[in-house]
Amino acid sequence: MVTIRHWAVRHARGLERFYRGFAQLLARLDPLWRRLGYSRLEAPVARVEHAVKGLLFDCRMCGHCVLSDTGMSCPMNCPKQLRNGPCGGVRANGHCEVEPDMKCVWVEAWEGSQRMRHGDRIHAVQLPVDHGQQGSSSWLRVARELSHDADPSPVQR
Amino acid sequence: MKFEDEPVPGYSLPILPGHVSPGRLERVLRAGKFAVTTEIDPPDSADPAEVLKRAAIFDGYVDAINATDGSGAHCHMSSVGVCSLLTRVGYATILQMSCRDRNRIAMQGEILGAAAMGACNVLCLTGDGVQAGDHPQAKPVFDLDSMSLLEIARAMRDECRFQSGRRIDLPPRVFLGAAENPFVPPIDWRPHRLAKKVAAGAQFIQTQYCFDIERMRDFMLKVNDLGLLEGPDRVFILVGLGPLASARSARWIRDNVPGVHIPDAVITRLEGSSDQKREGKNLCMDLLHQVRDIPGVSGAHLMAYRQEHSVAEIIETTGVLEGRVPWYPGRDNPAERNPESMEAEAVQGHSVTDAT
């Protein structure tokens, strides 16, 4: 929903803080996730993640969440799915070239990043999406990566 | 005046120290000359002669020719096809690659193929959306964006590997370029976005059409402040320019071509003229003069769609090449002439008359 999406960008700073805490919590619970089994958790967590992030950000479950680097504006909502900033076709009113009624996802990302403490992360070059991760949970990936899990096998890539 | 080390068609020049490509564009830019590039209108045809004919229009006026890649999401001869035909007779080409139509497997293969065919420059583009073209029903691919394409191309060249990590035996020696549009929102992000492109591997930039010199100046100041115009990894900026055919066409472009910013003052100036086409060219020449004087600008990229013949006049009149005549097939050796050039035709016509 576009209205909620806009709300998320307006509250990028608060969400950023929440997200950092949440990521740390996920990482701390790594032993629990391991005991339950990352692969067993994948489907239910992905469903919850889709519901929450779908509502807040119109999340497309790319499996490679970069929201905290992009001003809490999900780049997968860009019709060209650009991951590194706006194309050259942004309209003078800041709207999208492809969908004239929609504000450019990256104009929003820039505004959101200005509100964030670590907004300069928008300047980092993002790697291309690994399409094999489509539909997988970014939360579990973050939990695994932050806790330096040595065994990356549970999720099929 | 000639530029040193001109090519023998079909053979690569040696790569100079500090250069990444054997191409002439990189040489001209690194030597600090004001470079001029243009773009060829690719034919809706499989006729090779048509490509050579369209390139010959620019003989002696440009340092490299962009082969567009389905520009405006319209179908034309492919950029690899155009580049291959042009490099065969020695033209310096810039291969445009848009992320709209191919995935990373196709694009990496194409970079190798184009480099093997003698293309020394690759311009990495996002590409217009399919809605802008003649096949709006097509599937937009956008597997990569221009930034990740740059990074992948750079790794292919400098680290001899595909994105998968698999090794490349002989890397593509290409000078990497990207586009930037300093004239559309978010304006204050645009210089930083350029910095990001440079970090991803861009070595030259061709901008969108510039009709707003103040915005261009501001942009260049900020680009300079970010330190992007210094050092071995510096970027060369070529400003996009082109003649407008009339006030009406300017309005149409403004409303229908994504990303082109034309201030009202420009349209008023055209409207006030009795010969709007002439005035469009004059405006382009005025802008070219002004652009040349902006500190840090390395050249101009002339996009004269359907007015390709005016490129020669614009370059000639403004004298931006300062007497330099960029190499073209036949400049030094008539035997190497582009068979479709006017000169070649004139000579042929002459010999036929002689024989009869």
Automatic annotation (TrEMBL), chain A:
Tell me, what's a Pfam family for it?
Answer: DUF5981
What are the residue boundaries of the Methylene-tetrahydrofolate reductase C-terminal-like domain, all occurrences included? 40-130
| Top-level taxon of the source organism | Bacteria
What name goes with this protein? Methylene-tetrahydrofolate reductase C-terminal-like domain-containing protein
UniProtKB/TrEMBL annotation, chain B:
Gene Ontology CC annotation, any one = cytosol
Which cofactor is essential here? FAD
Asked whether the keyword Lipoprotein is assigned, the reply is no
Pathway membership, UniProt: Amino-acid biosynthesis; L-methionine biosynthesis via de novo pathway; One-carbon metabolism; tetrahydrofolate interconversion
Q: InterPro entries under this entry?
A: FAD-linked_oxidoreductase-like (IPR029041), Mehydrof_redctse-like (IPR003171)
> What biological-process GO terms show up in the record?
methionine biosynthetic process; tetrahydrofolate interconversion
Q: Per UniProt, which keywords does this protein have?
A: FAD, Flavoprotein, Oxidoreductase
* Ranges where the record places region Disordered: 326-356
The family database entries (CDD domains) matched by this protein are listed as:
MTHFR (cd00537)
MF term (GO), any: FAD binding
Q: Does the keyword Magnesium apply?
A: no
Catalytic reaction annotation: (6S)-5-methyl-5,6,7,8-tetrahydrofolate + NAD(+) = (6R)-5,10-methylene-5,6,7,8-tetrahydrofolate + NADH + H(+)
What family, per the record? Belongs to the methylenetetrahydrofolate reductase family.
PANTHER family recorded: METHYLENETETRAHYDROFOLATE REDUCTASE, METHYLENETETRAHYDROFOLATE REDUCTASE (NADPH)
Protein name in the entry: Methylenetetrahydrofolate reductase
